[in-house]
Amino acid sequence: MRFRIAVLVAVAALGPQSSHAQSPEQIELATRALAWREIGPTIMGGRIADLAVVESDPAVFYVGTATGGIWKTENSGITFAPIFDHEVTSSIGDVTVAPSNPNVVWVGTGEPQNRQSSPWGNGVYRSTDAGATWTHLGLESTHHI
Fold first, then answer.
1. Is 96:124 a contact under the CB 8 Å cutoff?
2. What's the burial of 136, exposed, middle or buried (CB within 10 Å: 0-12/13-18/19+)?
3. Hey, is 99 helix, strand or coil?
4. Number of domains the chain contains
5. Shared-domain flag, residues 57 and 10
6. What is the DSSP letter of 73?
7. Are 92 and 21 in a shared domain?
8. What is d(CA 26, CA 33) in angstroms, rounded to the nearest whole number?
9. How far is CA 103 from the centre of its chain?
10. pLDDT computed for residue 117 by the predictor
11. Is 81:133 a contact under the CB 8 Å cutoff?
């Protein structure tokens, strides 16, 4: 895997430095180094319910999933970390970052496009430390936010 990444970096570094598109040969060389692999759930899983970007630092964003909780990236989506694993539900309907403070993140649970493969939510949560910890704030009976 490291070799493939090194090849891609080398292709990018040796490629044209102008704003012109890469040649078909360069694209073929770069894509030949890639291998398909399964990285997510199958069947009904894997749906994205919402996305929230920190406006002051767009490399940081949160992804709310239908059945997999909240995932956070701090490097423009190169890697993600789960940050909602210890809560009662993992079904997410909404995730929002407060424009006034990027450390405040709101989550509405319960995917609204329920397809019988995601459970009901149990209300609203808030984090004041960029997703490290969560406080349940109520609305348990809403099922989908």
1. no
2. middle
3. coil
4. 2
5. no
6. E
7. no
8. 11
9. 17
10. 64
11. no
Instruction: Give domain status of residue 38, yes or no.
Output: no
Tens-digit pLDDT profile for residues 21-41: 778 888 888 888 777 776 655
The answer as to whether 37 is a domain residue is no
**What is the chain's mean pLDDT, rounded?**
80
Burial 90-102 (b: 16+ CB within 10 A, else e): bbbbbbbbeeeeb
Q: pLDDT tens for residues 68-90?
A: 899 999 998 888 999 999 998 88
- Residue 82's pLDDT is 95
Q: Which two tokens stand for residue 119?
A: 């459970």
Rounded CA separation 70/56 (Å): 20
Give the chain's radius of gyration (CA, Å): 19
Roughly what angle, to the nearest 10 degrees, separates helices 24-32 and 2-14? 170
Q: What is the pLDDT averaged over residues 94-98?
A: 95
- Return all residues near 111 (Cβ < 8 A) that are at least 6 apart: 47, 49, 66, 67, 91, 92, 93, 118, 121, 144
Query: In whole angstroms, what is the distance from residue 101 CA to residue 113 CA?
Result: 29
pLDDT at res. 4: 45
